[in-house]
Amino acid sequence: MAKMKLTADHKRFHLWVMDKPCCVPDCQQPSIFHHQKQPFPLPRRDHKYGVNICGHHHSEYHDKYGSDDAFAKAYGIYLPDYALTNLEYWDDK
User: Fold this and answer.
1) Residue 41 preceded by cis peptide, ω within 30
2) Nearest alpha carbon to residue 75 among 36, 23, 37, 30
3) Which of 26, 42, 43, 75 is deepest in the core (most CB within 10 A)?
4) Rounded distance, CA 17 to CA 65, Å?
5) Furthest-apart CA pair in the chain: how many Å?
6) Is 88 inside a domain boundary?
């Protein structure tokens, strides 16, 4: 499968997401854009499906927890749902 090109609209979306603090409750650190794997219709990555998360929690997600369920259990936030909320809010603008 060919990589999806990052368009100007994608870049605006990324900047909008990263303008928000880390999505982990009570963190409030500056965020990066974490591409969240979509659970539907097929697992894939999309430039408009992501979450605002700080570098520390992003590293923990990949290195310590390794799954959305384990991360949700630790922090009470399910990243696929958060990514969907970001996308829905952006699309409603």
Assistant:
1) yes
2) 23
3) 75
4) 23
5) 38
6) yes
Render 8-30 in DSSP notation, one character per residue.
Answer: HHHHHHHHHHHTSPPSSTTT---
Q: Tell me the pLDDT of the chain (93 aa) as tens digits.
A: 456 677 888 899 999 999 999 999 999 999 999 988 776 665 556 677 899 999 999 999 999 999 999 999 999 999 999 999 998 888 766
What is the three-state SS of 35-93? Answer: EEEECCCCCEEEEEEEEEECHHHHHHHHHHHCCHHHHHHHHCCCHHHHHHHHHHHHHHC
Query: Is residue 2 a part of any domain in this protein?
Result: no
Is 75 domain-assigned? yes
Q: Give the total number of structural domains in the chain.
A: 1
The structure's pTM equals: 0.83
At 32, is the secondary structure helix, strand, or coil? Answer: strand
Separation CA 60–CA 46 (nearest Å): 22
